[in-house]
Write the C-alpha cells for this entry.
Amino acid sequence: MKKRIKQDVATNIVINIFLIIAGIVALYPIWFVLIASISDPMLISAGKIFIIPKNISFKAYEMLKNYPEIWIGYRNSLFYMVACTAVTLFGILPAAFALSRKALVGRKVLNFLIVFSMYFSGGMIPTYLLHRSLGWIDTIWVLLVPSLFVAYYLILARSAFQELPEALYEAARIDGASDFRFFYQFAVPLSSAMIAVIALFSGLAWWNNYAKFLIYIDNPDLQSLQVIVQQITAKLTASLSNAASMSEAIQAEKTKELLKYSIVVITALPFCLIYPFIQKYFNTGVMIGAVKE
C-alpha cells in the first residue's frame, strides 16, 4: 500500500511538472508580445528581449493615433463579430431544434443535405458571381445573410437538442405548451453550454476572418481590422524598401516593429476579456453529441 502511494505521488509530481512546462510554453508567446510592445524595437530585432522588457515606452500605442483606419477596422470587426454571431444563432437554433424532432417529415433527407453541404460546395468563383448578381458585393449583406446557415454549428446544436429528455418534451406537451414555447422556455435555457460554445467559435472565426473581406469588401469604411493591418504592414514594408537613406530605413523598421506588436495586443484583447466568462461552458458544450450510450 505504501509503495503504491509513493508511486502515485511520483506520478502526480511528474504530471504537475509536465503541466507547468506546457503552461509556460503556451503562455510565453503571449508574454513576449506584451513585453515587446513596450520595449525598444531595436533590442527586439537584436534578440536582447526575452523575459523582462527593456527601455520601456508606450510609444507603440501612442502611434496608433496616427492610423485612424485601424480604429475604423476595429469598430467594424467588433460589429461583424457580434452581428454575424447573433444572426448565426438566430438562424441555426430554430432549425436545429426542428431537425432534432423525430416527428419532422423528411428529417433524414435534410440531415443528409446539411452534411453534404459541409464537403461539397459551388466553389469560390460561383459563390462570388451569385453574390454579385444579388447586389451584395461591398455591402454588409454579403457577410450577414450567409451567416444564417453554418452546417457545423447546426449539427452541434441539433446534437445538443437531441440529448434533451424526451419525457420533458412530452410533459410540456401535456401541459399545453407548443413546440415554439418548449423551444424558447426549455430547450434554449437548457442548452446554454452549447450556445456559448457556438457563440465563441463563431465570434472568433469572424474576428480573425481575412479572406471574405478581401474578396467581397472594397469600401475602406466597411473593411475589417485584419485586412487594414495587412495593408498598413504592406505600406510600411514598401517604405522600408524605398528608403532613401539609412536613417529613414531604421525609422521605418522601428515603426513597423512597434505597430506589429501593439496591434497584436489590441487585437487579442477582446477575446482575452470574453473567454474567462465562457470558459466554464466550453468543456461541456464542445463534447455535446460526441459520446452516445
